[in-house]
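Morning!

As promised:
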Amino acid sequence: MKKFSVLLICAVIAMVMTACNGESENASSESKNEVSVWFHTSKETAEAKAMQDIVDQFNEENENGYTAKMEFIPRSGSGGGYEDKINAALTTDSLPDVLTLDGPNTAAYAKSGIIAPVGDYISNKDDLLPSIIEQGTYNDKLYAVGYSESSVGIFYNKQMLKDAGVDLSTLPTVEDPWTWKEFKELAATLTEEYDVPAVEMGLDTKSEWLMYAFTPFLWSQGGNIVNDEKTKATGTFNSDKSVQAMNFVQDLVAEGYTTKTPVEKGFQTGKYPLKLTGSWTIAEMANSYPDVEYGVMPYPTSPDTNELVSPSGAWQYAMAASTEKKEAAGAFIDFMTKPENLKKISLENSVLPASKSIIDEVKQEVSPQMQVLIEQNAKSGHARPVLPEYPQVSRVFQQTILDLTYPDKNDDIQKLLDQKAKEIDKALE
Amino acid sequence: MKSINAKHNIVAYSFLLPALVLLGLFLLIPAIMAIYYSFTDYYLLTPQDRTFVGFENFIEIFSDPTFLRSLQNIAIFVLCVIPVQVGAALGLALLINKQRRGNMFFKVAYFAPVVLSLVVISVLWLYLLNPSEGLINEVLMQIGFDPQPFLTSPDQAIYTIVFVSAWQGAGYQMLIFLAGLQNIPSDVYEASKIDGANKWQNFIHITLPLLKPTTILIMITTLIASFKLIIQPMVMTQGGPMNSTMTPVYYIYQSGFSDRLIGYASAMTVVFGLLIGLVTLIQSKVSKEDE
Amino acid sequence: MDKRLKKIIEYVLLILLACIFIFPLIWMIASSMKPESEVYSDMGGIQSMIPSLNPSDWFTTYQELFDRFNVLKYVFNSITYSIAVTAGSILINAMAGYAFAKFDFKGKKVLFGVLIALLIVPVETLIITQFTVAHDLGILNTRLAVILPMIANMFFIYLFRNFFMAVPDEIIESVKLDGANYWTIFWRIVLPMSKPAIATVGTLSFIASWNDYLWPLMVLTDSSKYPLQVAITNINSTPPVYTNQVMAILTISTIPLVIVYIIAQRYILQGLGGSGTGIK
């Protein structure tokens, strides 16, 4: 018994100690010049490491004695991700001074007064890309500043295309894009040749990816998710044009050109000849699969409009409205979005540059594959809808794409879109 | 010891105090708050605009196809997992319940999955059941079957989760059945042997009735636990495909956090909480009458 | 002959069943002890159940995992939370159980009824409002937030109460005559007499706390405070994801529980209705 009570007392002491630990950590961040920052990846990612380097530099160089402390919160696939944490902190008024947020969330956060305008603190404003300004602006005020741009293309394995008898010089470019019909023809050739679904489209992920990568098909056809007033989806999301675009997506699955259950790393390891993916794959190829020769093609366009549309938008820095350290937080965001730091982020993470002045410098230093994405983004980047109810709208859209991948269960696309449009309407109410 | 006086009350309550404070803080107050919020249109981003909306949330959730689907899913899950898991546990217990060489090994083997946490089994089976490169499909193909979309087909996913859950829980319940079996005095069997009963009759007329209390207890706990299903679908399927594995608790979590609709999520909490309470009450009433 | 045949059939059945129950665990451990490429090249053969044939590869995966993630920190966190929850749970639930078992106080029946009713409240559904409470207490993103809600548990109170009921009143009365106060009685007499109950509650709390996932996921923002369960899903979604590393972290997070189950196997069974019913 004696032993036991000693144990118990030790444990209680341990508890109190850990509690005090928590207290003291909080207390230290209360210091006037330390900005607390939430970042949306786990600290093991390349992006987080690059970011931390720049933050360390800020901590060393800042003349006013401001410092920043990063907290890395992963955006995990299975629940409890970063945005849930932000939501949770909102209810309870425990937001940090600075946070990162995805482009489409700007409206919701600004509208409800979670984030404060930062325009006055940013010295590099005129140099930022129009798309960056656009996604960060709400009611004519700049609320958030993107530190990179993004884009998606059709990555292709050069060797596999050659072996299938495709002439690489005829492949589409940003200046001279291709249509869905041509895309399907290529996919059919390759599917036939390799007896696997030709193109990996990330249909196995249930995440923002689906919204981000598949909305361009809708827009290229002239369809949309919500009407121009952003009040209703019925009449827009279930219009003929939207149905046609979704039909194209479903055909890819129904005809076996793509699969909802792709093999992990199938493109990287030479199983699939094509992959619909973003700039991050360029970094992965360079780091882990340096021997694979690959190129990047632009998005295929609707044969009815021939209009090239590609996704854009990225994560940005914003200041919490609740912060008591506006000057320090503003100085921090300003520092993070200075041209030299934006350039550093672009090159180290292989993401697209967010400001005009560095585009040419970056372009000289990046691979031809990256150049294709930079050009496509400049020419055809299309932002996702700016809506306070964005999370629900995005989720319904993701659900729609996933449901489409079951052609035998959802062969009536009109009916499916009618129902999903109703769901979006409910969220918009 | 049984004298009631003021001092006695104070002493008793001082012993109760820590537990009551913690239960109050983390169970009672949250429950009351959920009821209160369920009558409001509390949207996380605009707490200042919170207004009282009466039964609006309740009307809305019953026309929400996802919520209805989640109720249907949990009904399927509960109705499948109870017979599968409890049946497997009883079968294993009967198999093991005899003297033979190597019995200890079998007992440990059947119990092994219990040691894994729900997160671990979910991640592990996610890899095993991977449609194109998982071990299970690899083996199926080698013996001439088509690979199965265990977690990616809306028709199979919920049953796959039933199997994984039962696979984990059966070994534990097997041990409880085993304890029940060992409590049956052997002379009961001796007596019926003299009456000329065979093994099967023994099982039906002696073993089963005597195991009844154990079985009912196991069923109730399985029932209550299965209602709270969230981790497996969260990790393995994120509620998909086509909402076929969305469960009420998961949907509450999603509406409350991802969609920021606290009022709406609270209404589901209340409805689902009442439902669980009701089922539990019926279940315990039925089992009481049986005894 | 007939008897022998029956015996053989019986054993074949037993072994087949055993395979169904343990092959995932064996695959998990084997995969964590080989290079990533071998995990996939071995898939489907008997080789997939055997670690790398080259013993020097056995712990390379673990080495890589430890280089990428601060696994020791997560292990330490999980152990801290579980021990704190276990100690708190034993003490606080035993005190409450003692009050219900040995005192006749005002409102006892009502209170007990209310607590039993709380047993059927599905805690998981209250997660949103529980969170708000945690915030109002100012404990978000502290270790206390992970620990506190798991301590008081009606089922454990009930278990202690039933156990203490069996402690004869005469013993307590006789000590009381010697002038001992209630706390002394509880601490010196009642608790030492109920080691089995303590062991049961301790074991079950430890396991429940070790396996807790949803709550720590919500209240912790600082990844250096993550327990192992949350770290698992974090590692499983931090690209690049390597199957062998995921299996390694699964194995690491299971080892402590294996030890607990071996040490405390006598007490696990009494926890029916508590945790560990497979589906929580």
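The CA atoms of residues 13 and 19 of chain A lie 10 Å apart.

Hope this helps with the figure draft.
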